[in-house]
Amino acid sequence: MADIRKIKTKKNIEMAFVTLLNERNFKSITVEEICKQAMTSRSTFYLHYLDKYDLLNQLVETQFSVFEKIVDKRIEGLISGQFEETITHFYNELVNNKQIIRALFTINEPKFNLKQKFEDTLYQHWLRYLSEKSSLKYNELIAKFGASIVFDTLNWTFENGIDDETLLFVENIRKKILEMSTSLKEIHDEP
Questions:
Q1: Would residue 161 be called left, alpha or beta, if left means φ above 0 and alpha means ψ between -120 and 50 degrees?
Q2: Cα angle vertex 120, ends 132, 122, to 5°?
Q3: How far apart are CA 77 and CA 15, in angstroms?
Q4: Of 118, 112, 96, 124, nearest to 54 (Cα)?
Q5: Which of 21, 80, 112, 118 could bond to 103 as cystine, CB 3.0-4.6 Å?
Q6: In sequence order, what DSSP letters do the residues of 83-128 get, joined into one string?
Q7: How far apart are CA 94 and CA 158, in angstroms?
């Protein structure tokens, strides 16, 4: 029974922190305010976290770990042509945490920049995919475009929900980018 209470308390502290992040910036939030919002004591807070930076770090690492697992499972479909179906699955797997993710995206601290970690992960996967297909000098640029499309679409769906027309539009952009990379390879390979 104690484990359930610990889990609930930790979840309350995390959600209180997220609520405060949606109201103002991270640096202005105090442990006392987090505890007040979570309706818990400071001593209880410190049983779970060293300080607010530890709380932030644990939230960022948890969300990043979940994201990496989803990307590993879905990246091939995002790049290779099952974009609409894959982004729908991608979104559905992350939607339960969208409130936390969106709040963490507002933090620009280098060590805790979840948004940058998401973008870097997508970029690395795109670059790996493109490198397996060709050895163009433009692979890094194409990977940046591709990662940006996936990330921005995901971010947009958090705000607006999934819209088939938008997904089709984005899918057409993804196809054009891959077509252009293929045509660049053909131009590059010509004698």
A1: left
A2: 50
A3: 32
A4: 112
A5: 21
A6: HHHHHHHHHHHHGGGHHHHHHHHT---GGG-HHHHHHHHHHHHHHH
A7: 9
* CA–CA separation, 87 and 136 (whole Å): 27
Tens-digit pLDDT profile for residues 51-88: 999 999 999 999 999 999 888 877 777 666 676 677 77
Instruction: State percent of the chain over pLDDT 70.
Output: 88
- Asked if residues 154 and 186 have their Cβ atoms less than 8 Å apart, the reply is no
Asked if 78 contacts 90 with a C-beta cutoff of 8 angstroms, the reply is yes
Segment (H or E) for 18: helix 2-23
Say whether pLDDT at 190 is over 60: no
The number of helices, as runs of H, and strands, as runs of E, in the chain is: 9, 0
Rounded to whole angstroms, the Cα distance separating 128 from 81 reads 16
pLDDT at 185 (0 to 100)? 56
Q: Within a 10 A sphere around the Cβ of 125, how many other Cβ atoms?
A: 22
CA gap 18, 86 in Å, rounded:
28
CATH topology of domain 1-49: Arc Repressor Mutant, subunit A (1.10.10)
In the predicted model, is pLDDT for residue 36 greater than 80? yes
